[in-house]
Write a structure and sequence with these properties.
Layout: E1 3-7, H1 12-23, E2 29-36, H2 41-53, E3 57-62, H3 64-77, H4 88-107, E4 111-113, H5 122-133, E5 138-140, H6 142-145, E6 147-148, E7 154-155, H7 159-168, E8 182-186, E9 189-193, E10 223-230, E11 233-237, E12 240-241, H8 244-257, E13 262-268, E14 274-280, H9 282-298, H10 301-320, H11 326-339, E15 344-351, E16 354-361, H12 369-372, H13 384-390, H14 393-403
Parallel strand pairs: 1-2, 1-4, 2-3, 4-5
Antiparallel strand pairs: 6-7, 8-9, 9-14, 10-11, 10-15, 11-12, 13-14, 15-16
Helix pairs in contact: 1-7, 3-4, 4-5, 8-9, 10-11
Bound molecules: arginine.
Residues 89-90, 121, 182-184, 191, 193, 267, 277 line the site of arginine.
Length: 406
């Protein structure tokens, strides 16, 4: 008996994979794993229902708390970003793969299957985790391999072919025929692809957004919110201590109501393709803004400069899904050390799509009112005279040399 663990979202692609596993790839036992990282409850329900209809052994893993604590919080500490995108889909993939690995180990599976295509980033992220943790298991990607043609060759699946195949195998696909957008959702963000959305010169229609209001529909009055941090991780809202899940959910709702968190990027994908991407990340954008503001208050100038390089490298590794890479761990050692001082509160004003820092406070603030204030007597301004004179000395010497022939 051969067993395959299918990473299962319940959507069309991965549903098609179920009969394919049996009929084409010859597995006698298909185990589906759906990982709940905060996608709509309806998606989870549909996955369970379809798995039941198709007769797989199914597991749903609730990984929401783990996702926030082990994936989103490190992303906050590293100001997690790739080209302006808060890496929301990217950081969920290693966890989804990890849960599939746990199931595979438990049941002694022979192989994995996933629904990633050969164009995107997810194939890299998911397979890296599987290969790292269980190097001996086979990995099958039916969507990437394409459809088997009568002459034995392979050809990419078209959407219509997938729907026909699904219907022929008893998978109900109501409305699927006119679903235009490909959406990926988790607690950290929502990404919207498909149709014309990938084109750089196409204005995204308002209808693609579900988590963030359009500016015209946001409340006239701004919302002020104070976020408290402990070791670089958000722990309170307006002084109230909340669980990570409650905290993210509340910020999500508030920021979304005020139209905060839309991100539209020209993204360089791992294979080098430039693809335009739309995201809604109200909680991520808000919490990242607050975290950066607090770091700016407590870190030295040199630390901030160096950390921006570290963060950038971390963001790129996270984007690529290299979650267990030694360099990533090395970077995290640096990041975590600095986070020990990233404690305090940040006040934000959410209004008409913007998220503005209006106040910050920390016991570790490298700010001295007496030194910085215009009325300060402690700072002896006459001492600046000599320091100013040496400023740009080498630069001035250079200009003296350039001008000597004139
Ligand atoms: N391009 C993004 C990433 O690689 C998001 C992909 C999300 N997929 C989707 N079907 N909307 O992380």
């Amino acid at each position: 008996m051969s067993t395959v663990v299918l990473v299962y979202s319940g959507g069309l692609d991965t549903s098609v994979c179920i009969p394919l596993m049996r009929d084409e790839y010859g597995f006698s036992r298909v185990v589906t794993v759906t990982v709940d990282v905060g996608q709509p409850a309806e998606d989870i329900r549909q996955a369970e229902e379809r798995a039941h209809t198709l007769g797989t052994e199914h597991t749903t893993v609730d990984a929401k708390a783990e996702f926030i604590e082990q994936y989103c919080w490190p992303a906050v500490q590293a100001n997690g970003d790739y080209q302006g995108y808060p890496i929301s889909t990217a950081i969920a993939r290693p966890l989804i793969a990890l849960k599939a690995v746990e199931v595979a180990k438990q049941i002694g599976a022979d192989a994995y299957a996933h629904g990633c295509t050969g164009k995107g980033n997810d194939q890299f992220r998911i397979e890296y985790i599987m290969r790292t943790l269980t190097p001996d298991l086979a990995i099958i990607a039916p969507m990437r391999e394409g459809r088997k043609m009568p002459d034995g060759s392979r050809s990419p699946w078209t959407r219509t072919e997938e729907i026909d195949y699904a219907e022929a195998h008893g998978i109900s696909v109501p409305q699927t025929r006119d679903k235009i957008w490909s959406i990926d959702e988790n607690l950290w963000g929502r990404s919207i692809e498909g149709g014309h959305l990938e084109e750089p010169d196409y204005s995204p229609p308002e209808e693609i957004f579900q988590w963030t209001r359009g500016i015209a529909d946001t409340p006239a009055a701004p919302a002020n919110v104070e976020i408290g941090f402990e070791n670089g991780v958000p722990v309170t809202i307006n002084g109230e201590a909340l669980s990570p899940l409650d905290l993210v959910s509340r910020i999500h709702a508030l920021a979304g109501e005020h139209g905060v968190g839309r991100v539209d990027v020209m993204e360089d994908r791992m294979l080098g393709l430039k693809v335009r991407e739309n995201y809604e990340c109200p909680a991520a954008v808000t919490l990242l803004t607050a975290h950066r503001a607090l770091e700016a208050l407590v870190c030295t100038q040199a630390e901030l400069k160096f950390k921006s390089l570290v963060d950038r490298e971390w963001g790129e590794m996270a984007y690529k899904g290299l979650w267990y890479d030694p360099l990533k761990e090395d970077l995290e050692a640096f990041i975590l050390r600095i986070q020990e001082r990233v404690c305090g509160t940040v006040r934000l004003r959410l209004w008409r799509g913007s998220c503005i820092v209006v106040g910050r406070r920390s016991d570790w603030a490298l700010y001295n009112e007496d030194l910085a204030s215009f009325d300060s007597k402690t700072f002896d301004q006459s001492e600046s005279v000599g320091i100013v004179k040496t400023h740009g000395m080498q630069s001035r010497m250079y200009w003296a040399l350039r001008n000597r022939s004139k």
